[in-house]
């Protein structure tokens, strides 16, 4: 990467990363090109080439940006759960887990299609794998407040699996994930 010494340069690089993250989330890795990112920001193609050595560097930054957003959402939910001090019902825990893992801002079909496609891009897959620890940690904090023994990774897997099932069958994602989480938590308690 070319050093970015000025505040204006840092701002431009940030804008390019955010645009690349948006394109990655909506179009998958194939939609993230130097040209597409430049068009998204409204700058010249030469700007992307100046700030990023190649497309792989841009994809890696886009992946880091997106996983940071997802982990940040889960961390805000964990902070809310910890501030409450306890989670006394399975229903409350399920709703907090859904809030932590499922985006309400992005269309879920597109999210999961692009998430699956991300595995075809080594820079994006590495970024998601590296950043996944923050997401797992935040979801784990929610589960600890509730005293649940379910691991964060399993809770996230249940939600993601429910989402893919619901999307492929034309069902409501949140309702399907809610039901599967209830079942998993009931099995854990029983």
TrEMBL record:
- Residue ranges flagged as DNA-binding region: 33-52
Q: Which InterPro entries match?
A: Homeodomain-like_sf (IPR009057), HTH-type_TetR-like_transc_reg (IPR050109), HTH_TetR (IPR001647)
Q: Does the keyword Transcription apply?
A: yes
**Database matches in PROSITE patterns:** HTH_TETR_2
Its domain of life reads Bacteria
**Entry keywords, A to Z:** DNA-binding, Transcription, Transcription regulation
Listed GO MF terms: DNA-binding transcription factor activity; transcription cis-regulatory region binding
- Domain named HTH tetR-type: residues: 10-70
Name of this chain's protein: TetR family transcriptional regulator
**Organism name:** Luteococcus japonicus
Q: Lineage of this protein's species?
A: Bacteria, Bacillati, Actinomycetota, Actinomycetes, Propionibacteriales
